Every structure is written in structure tokens, then in C-alpha cells.
Automatic annotation (TrEMBL):
Full protein name: WSC domain-containing protein
Domain WSC: 20-117
SUPFAM superfamilies (UniProt xref): PKD domain
Highest taxon above the source species: Eukaryota
Signal peptide: 1-20
Keyword vocabulary terms for this entry: Signal
InterPro entries for this protein: PKD_dom_sf, WSC_carb-bd
Organism: Brachionus calyciflorus
Length: 731
């Protein structure tokens, strides 16, 4: 199969007028100089006559007119540049020229072009089943007579004027096309006699590249888990995913969007270019503002002459004077390598490859010093004369919205088409020129693709490790990626079990963390002066000092966390509480009935305790150390009657208790000790007698002439006497 094997059969018949100019003779139609650029579209074809056509052209300020045999009127500013084929007299007398489709017979009002036929056959040099984006295809064409205007049009590219036979090349800058259009005419392309045919196009593919699979490292078993698949280019892709949980997914992915920023570039230009050179300074072009973030795939440039340039990517220097002329500039100097929004006051029109209005485009950046811009990337480019399609920076460099494509002279002077008239006569730029500067007329176009991002989701209910597999198949290649991740259960209702919120100094204390739910938990315990991390829920810790301490437990897994605050009281054990008689530290304890008895309280260890003294007479007394320590404190108690009392003390805190007791004797006080008989006669036996008012179990010591005398005492009568004696002398 030959994709372009097609024959064009074209009928050409034109009347061309030159109005009142006295041009006589037969004139050759000068296609190279584009005879008639403007047509009077407001003229009704049904009413068209040479006279009306002339009048219409006059109203447009174009003195020369021509009308086709199909009554379509064209106008022109200057007279045709034609060569005389026969003498004026012959032409005038005969009213016609020889039967040559390239000759015109003129008189005072209009010229006649004879009807003739021409055929063109096009055959591709190769027969590919498909092509990649930005590939080219060369074809051979042959014409039986010069077709003059032969245009092979695809993706907005025009091969331009062709001679009678030769070869031409088409570059494919768009995917998804199925046909090409070929047009041939002996005159203007909008002439009703122009012939168009549809040619089958080879399939244009774009291979898959820069495929990435981005999944989080962890997820929850109660939430949707999402992975993003991204590729910078690729069309016709099919995704297959194995989620590793017995579920799969298949999907046709959207094609990568390709944007073309700039004026479409013809592949051949026959007119003389306006000689604008890249010069020695930066030439920044209105049409090459990048209006979206993406990947710079290719650039097409038409160069009148061959030479070398530097192709640069720029960001505006935000402090430069030129930057202030842009639409909505940043208020201050900042990060240049970020996206900026330019121009589109309402919307970006993809079909026209420009904004509907763009104030930034009014700025002429031609010959502005390069110091006004910050260079992001640069690459030397060698241009050939004519059409150039290049893929700079490997065709895969990222660009930001608002960045600019610029050209800088490297060696020699490279003329870039800046005339705005380079296309064939009926070809109109997609982006109209906003001013007459070369800035708007450069024929350069950049192709930027926006990466395709596809999100895939799945609910994993089991807590475990997974490995997801994803493969993308395109018409050209296959790419596969895997991603490993873990699914966790969310931590809920964190708390800590303690021994009633208390611990004991110098004794190991246990804390146990609990949760209602959660998996793969790490516990971070924040204790006084120390932080410790465990992967188990139990922490054992020994406090070396007493007090009340705030503790924080932070429990987390890769996808959830909770914090629990609690207070722990660290106590000292109660041991050896004792009562002593006053401050004598004696276990022999006694007191006088009716008077306060003093008891000294001592405690070997203890904190946060409460003590109860049982005085042994059916009365008790309680105290604690909440306000101040009570160790070595004197307590008093009054006994109302004489007796021996079992006095006990019991002390406790929340972690311990202890007990001790003593026997306390409450006795009457010895009062009014007196002698009731202390004299006698000589040589008569007598005893010294005494008496007491009160006194419990008194003990006596009596001396007689320096010698101890025994004493008897009656506790009932509270009387007593010494040993009987006989006094031998008075005194």
C-alpha cells in the first residue's frame, strides 16, 4: 500500500483584469510573487462582473482586479509583474493568446487565462505502518504541467510551492490524525478551481516514557489507598494493576496532551523574508511564552539562512524594568523558577494556541539585554536553511508556565522569518500579529506536553505488607512498575494501666499501654528527665525520688498517632512508726493522772501517710503529713484515771502500712508527804510514821542516823512507818 499514491486532476480557467492600465498582450502568471493576495469577499459571486470587481477593489484601495471564470473577485495593490509572450497588436486584434495555461491575454479591462488541465501524482518514498511523533516522511511528486501551488497539509504544516517535480518532506507534529489534505491550483488556493484530495495518513504514535508509579509507603485499613501513575508522553495506553489482594484493575488511560505555543511554521517559503537576524542579544518572542507547566518536546523554526544559535529557556528577572510591563507581575523579587500566570484574561484557547487576549504579548522583547532575564537552560543549535524541527534538551526537559523561549546568536547571522508573509497567499497565522514588530512575526513554535497523571485506588482491609504491580501497554512499548507498602490499623483510644497512679521509690514500677485498635505501634514515653521508646506496650521504670510527675505517652505508626497524658505519684513506704515517753526514747512510759502525758512520734520511712494513735482509753487521734512531715513530733494526751494503758500507733499510705504499741501507766502524783510521828521517850520503842494524801505505788527511802531504814506502807490508808527503834538518849 502506498499511503499517498493519488492523482490530482485540476481544471484551471481564470479571467484576470488590470483595470484601466494599458497592458496589452499575453502575460505569464507570476506565482512566485503571489499575484493576488486579497479577495473581495463582500462581493456577491452571483452578481460578479469584471466591472463590479474593479469597483469593489477600488473601494478597498486596491486598483488592480481579477475575476475568475467562477466569478470570484480578487484585488491587488500593484500591477502584475508579467512577461509578454506575444505582441500587443496580435493580442489586441485576435482577443486571445495561444492555448497555454500559463499565459494571459490582456486588454484595457481584464485578461483571459485559457482553460487547461494539470495532474500531480504523489508517492511516498517509504511505506511505514506507523510513525512516531516528530518523525518525518518524504514523498516524490510529478506533475504533467506545473501546478504552481501544491500544498501537502498536516498538523498545520505546509510544504509550500513546488516545481514541476521533485521530493518534499512532511514532519508529523500531532497524533491522532487519520488523513492528510493535498491541494493544487493554477492560481490562488482559495480559487474555486483549486482541487483538494484526502490522503490516508500513517498512524502517528507517541511512545511511552518517564513512567513512574508513586504510592505512599503506608496506608490505613479503613481508608482508600491511592497510587498515582505518571508519564510524560504516550498515547493509546492501557493500564493493568494487580493490587496484591486478589483484586485487579484495567483502564484505558488518557493520552498525553500536546500544546503548541507559537506561530505554525511552513516547511517551504517562496517569498523573500524580512531579514531579521538573531543578532548578538536576546530575542524573546511573544508566541513562545509557555502557558502551561509541562515537558518541552520539540521546537520548529524557519531559518532563511543556515547558522548556529543558542536556544535558551528564560524566566523573567523580577526586578528588571521589563518585568513591570507584563500582566500581573509579582510584587517583589522572588523565586524565578516557579510558574507564573501570564496573559489569559478569560481563557486559553487551545485551538488557536493562544490566549483570547494577552497583555504580556504587547511587549516587544526584541534586542532587550539578556540581563533582564534569568537563564534556566541553554543548548547550542545548528539550523539549516528552511524548516527545522529539533528536540532540544533531549525532548524531556520540564518547563514552567510563564517561562520564555529565546534565541541568541552563536556564530554568524541567522535570518529568521519575521515578515509575517511567509505562508502561501491564502494561509493565515493562527496567532494574529498584535503589532508590527518582529516580535510577533517570528515563525517559531514550541511543543509542550502536559504529563498524564492517573490515580488508582483500592481499599485494603487486611493489615499486612503488600506489593502492587502496574503495567502500561502502549502501541510502541510496555512499561512495568511495582510499589511496596504496608497497611496499618488506625490507633484508637490510647490509655495506660498503672498501680492506682502511684509507684514506690527505688522499686520497679510497671506501665502498660492499651489501645482499642492499632497495629505496628511504637511507644514513646516521656518521663521526668528521660525519654524512652519501645515497640512493646509495657514499660518498667524505677523512680529514685519521690514526688508527683506528669508523664506523656505518644503512640504512633506510619499513618496514625495518639497522645495520652497521665500523672504518677511516687511514694516512700511507711516503716517503723513508734511512740516514746516524751523525748526519752524509752519504752517505759508513764504519766500523772489528770496531767498531759507527752509522747514522741518517730517514723523510719514514709511519705503520704496517715497515722492513727489509739490511746488505750477508748479515744484515738489521727494525723497525716499533708501539710508538713510529722516525724519527731510530740503528741500529748490526758488520762483521767489511774491505769495501765496499751497505746498503739498505726500508719499507712497507699502502698504500705506499719504498727507498734507500748504500755503506758497513768499514776496519781505523790502529794502532801508528811511525818505523823517523829518523837518518843528514851528507852521506849518507837517508829517514825508518815502519811500521804495521794500517790500510786510510791517507793520510799528513809535513813536513820545515816543508815537506810526499811519502810512499810499501806496503800489503802496511805500511811507508813520506819523500823521500830529504842531511843537511848534524847535529841
Amino acid at each position: 500500500m502506498k499511503f499517498f499514491s493519488k492523482t490530482l486532476s485540476i481544471l484551471i480557467s481564470l479571467f484576470i483584469g488590470v483595470k484601466s492600465q494599458e497592458f496589452f498582450g499575453c502575460y505569464e502568471y507570476d506565482v512566485a510573487n503571489m499575484e493576488f493576495l486579497t479577495f473581495a469577499s463582500h462581493l456577491d459571486p452571483n452578481l460578479a462582473t469584471p466591472a463590479l470587481c474593479s469597483k469593489a477593489c477600488d473601494s478597498m484601495g486596491l486598483p488592480f482586479s481579477a475575476i475568475t471564470s467562477s466569478m470570484f473577485c480578487f484585488c491587488r495593490l500593484t500591477a502584475p509583474t508579467a512577461s509578454v509572450k506575444v505582441s500587443d497588436d496580435t493580442c489586441y486584434s485576435s482577443g486571445m493568446c495561444t492555448a497555454d495555461t500559463n499565459q494571459y491575454c490582456g486588454h484595457s479591462k481584464y485578461m483571459l487565462v485559457y482553460t487547461g488541465d494539470t495532474t500531480v501524482e504523489m508517492t511516498p518514498n517509504t511505506d511505514p505502518s506507523s510513525l512516531n511523533l516528530f518523525d518525518s516522511l518524504t514523498y516524490t511528486y510529478n506533475g504533467s504541467t506545473p501546478a504552481k501551488n501544491l500544498i501537502i497539509k498536516s498538523n498545520g504544516l505546509i510544504s509550500g510551492y513546488q516545481p514541476l517535480y521533485g521530493t518534499a518532506t512532511i514532519f508529523f507534529t500531532q497524533t491522532g490524525i487519520t488523513t492528510l489534505e493535498a491541494t493544487s491550483s493554477g492560481g490562488l488556493m482559495k480559487d474555486s478551481n483549486s482541487q483538494r484530495i484526502v490522503i490516508p495518513s500513517p498512524t502517528v504514535k507517541d511512545d511511552l516514557s518517564n513512567y513512574t508509579l508513586d504510592c505512599p509507603l503506608s496506608g490505613l485499613n479503613d481508608e482508600i489507598f491511592r497510587c498515582d501513575l505518571r508519564f510524560n508522553k504516550g498515547i493509546g495506553t492501557v493500564l493493568n494493576i494487580d493490587f496484591n489482594d486478589a483484586t485487579t484493575q484495567s483502564a484505558n488511560l488518557p493520552d498525553t496532551e500536546l500544546y503548541a505555543f507559537g506561530i505554525p511554521v511552513p516547511q517551504k517559503i517562496s517569498t523573500t523574508l524580512l531579514n531579521k537576524s538573531t543578532g548578538s542579544s536576546v530575542n524573546l518572542l511573544y508566541n513562545t511564552f509557555f502557558k502551561t507547566d509541562g515537558i518541552l518536546r520539540a521546537v520548529e523554526i524557519y531559518a532563511e539562512t543556515a547558522g548556529s544559535i543558542d536556544l535558551n529557556i528564560y524566566a523573567h528577572s523580577t526586578c528588571s524594568s521589563q518585568y513591570s510591563s507584563l500582566k500581573s507581575p509579582q510584587s517583589s523579587c522572588g523565586d524565578l523558577k516557579t510558574s507564573s500566570t501570564f496573559g489569559c484574561t478569560s481563557s486559553f484557547m487551545k485551538g488557536l494556541e493562544r490566549c483570547d487576549t494577552d497583555d504580556a504579548g504587547q511587549k516587544n522583547f526584541y534586542n532587550i539585554p539578556s540581563t533582564s532575564f534569568t537563564q534556566i537552560k541553554t543548548e547550542p543549535i545548528t539550523l539549516t536553511a528552511g524548516y527545522n524541527l529539533i528536540q532540544p534538551f533531549g525532548g524531556a526537559t520540564g518547563v514552567k508556565q510563564g517561562w520564555i523561549l529565546g534565541l541568541v546568536q552563536n556564530t554568524g547571522r541567522v535570518s529568521i522569518d519575521a515578515s509575517g508573509k511567509a505562508p502561501v497567499s491564502d494561509y493565515t497565522d493562527a496567532s494574529p500579529l498584535l503589532n508590527s514588530t518582529c516580535n510577533g512575526a517570528f515563525h517559531i513554535r514550541a511543543f509542550v506536553s502536559k504529563p498524564t497523571i492517573f490515580s488508582s485506588s483500592n481499599l485494603y482491609t487486611l493489615v499486612k505488607n503488600y506489593t502492587l504491580s502496574a503495567s502500561i501497554t502502549s502501541p510502541i512499548n510496555i512499561a512495568a512498575k511495582t510499589a511496596s507498602f504496608a497497611i496499618y490499623e488506625r490507633i484508637q483510644e490510647l490509655s495506660v494501666i498503672t498501680d492506682n497512679g502511684q509507684c514506690q521509690v527505688d522499686v520497679e514500677c510497671t506501665f502498660t499501654a492499651t489501645t482499642l485498635k492499632g497495629s505496628g505501634i511504637t511507644y514513646e514515653w516521656r518521663l521526668p528527665s528521660i525519654n524512652t521508646t519501645t515497640t512493646t506496650a509495657i514499660l518498667k521504670h524505677t523512680f529514685t525520688s519521690n514526688g508527683v510527675f506528669d508523664i506523656i505517652l505518644f503512640a504512633y505508626n506510619p499513618v496514625s498517632n495518639e497522645t495520652y497524658f497521665f500523672t504518677i505519684k511516687v511514694l516512700i513506704v511507711v516503716s517503723k512508726p513508734k511512740l516514746f515517753a516524751s523525748s526519752l526514747f524509752s519504752t517505759d512510759s508513764s504519766s500523772i493522772v489528770g496531767k498531759n502525758a507527752e509522747f514522741l512520734f518517730t517514723l523510719k520511712t514514709g511519705l503520704g501517710y496517715t497515722c492513727t494513735i489509739n490511746w488505750g482509753d477508748l479515744s484515738t487521734e489521727k494525723f497525716d503529713d499533708s501539710l508538713s512531715p510529722k516525724n519527731n513530733t510530740i503528741f500529748v494526751h490526758l488520762y483521767a484515771r489511774e491505769a495501765n494503758y496499751n497505746v498503739s500507733i498505726y500508719c499507712e499510705n497507699s502502698i504500705s502500712n506499719d504498727f507498734s504499741s507500748i504500755i503506758h501507766s497513768a499514776q496519781h502524783e505523790i502529794t502532801n508527804l508528811r511525818l505523823t510521828r517523829w518523837f518518843s521517850f528514851r528507852n521506849i520503842q518507837f517508829s517514825v510514821e508518815f502519811a500521804l494524801d495521794f500517790g500510786t505505788s510510791p517507793e520510799f527511802q528513809m535513813t536513820y542516823n545515816g543508815q537506810t531504814d526499811s519502810v512499810t506502807y499501806n496503800s489503802v490508808s496511805r500511811t507508813g512507818a520506819g523500823s521500830p527503834r529504842i531511843g537511848t538518849s534524847s535529841g
